[in-house]
Amino acid sequence: MLDDKNGRFGSAGEEEARAVGGGEEEAGAIGGGKDEVASNGNSSKLSKAYKKLEEEEEMAQSSSATSASSRTASFILRILAFALSLISLIVLATNTVIVTDYDYNEAKFRFQDFYAYRYMLATIVIGTAYSLLQLVASICNAISGGEGMLVLAFFGDKFISYVMATGAAAGFGVTVDLSRVTGGTGLDMSNFFEKAYASASLLLLAFICTAVLSIISAFALPRRSL
């Protein structure tokens, strides 16, 4: 009987030991599952971080490409604005005509004899000086790699473009009025009027370039804040 009891206790101990071993294996499996879940979670986080970095790099590359193209366009437009306003200034400043009436009396007309042309000349001088200043600033920024004062350029471009627009409008208006007034007098002032139209047209083109520059400056401001 003692042997039977010992055999029972032995078999019971073995079963209990097996149960304990099975529990340990189950616990190990659970622990391994937890490790696997944790590793999967870490890998997903890393993949998300890598994707975010790639997106940021793509945005930075696209932003740098856009910035470079806008700088090139701005530089070209500033050269055009300066050249057009300078030529307009030369044409208007040299606009003088000598006419002869029916009695062979000669009369000399100059642009400064009319207040509208004086105002037009003032707007051209202001626009030319501003375009030259911004052109020099653009060259300096290109050499140093900086962006310059975008806020000042934005408001300056808008103000100067409005000034140029009013100057061109004044030039066209006074030329049309003078051509109508002198049409029946026999005074040949066609050369004077052609130069005035040419100067006003060049000033109008310079205004368009400056207006486009103000739009480019407006788009550059939020990109810089980012």
Question: What would a concise description of this structure say?
Answer:
The chain is mostly helical. Helix content is 84%, strand content 4%.
SSE map:
Elements: H1 2-93, E1 96-100, E2 106-110, H2 115-144, H3 150-181, H4 190-225
Antiparallel strand pairs: 1-2
Helix pairs in contact: 1-2, 1-4, 2-3, 2-4, 3-4
Explain this structure to me?
The chain is mainly α and 226 residues long. The chain has four helices and two strands, in the order αββααα. A hairpin with a 5-residue loop joins strand 1 and strand 2. The termini are far apart.
Shape descriptor = elongated
| Uncertain regions spanning at least 5 consecutive residues | 1-10
Can you write the helix and strand succession as a string?
Answer: HEEHHH
Instruction: Estimate what percentage of residues fall within beta strands.
Output: under 5%
Strand order of the largest sheet: 1-2
**Whole-number mean pLDDT:** 76
Structural class: mainly alpha
| Strand element count | 2
Radius of gyration: 41 Å
In DSSP terms (H or I, runs of 4 or more residues), the helix count works out at 4
Helix content: over 70%
Biggest sheet layout: 2 strands, antiparallel
Distance between the termini: 90 Å
Could you list some keywords that capture this structure?
two-stranded antiparallel sheet; 4 helices; mainly alpha; disordered N terminus; 226 residues; 4% strand
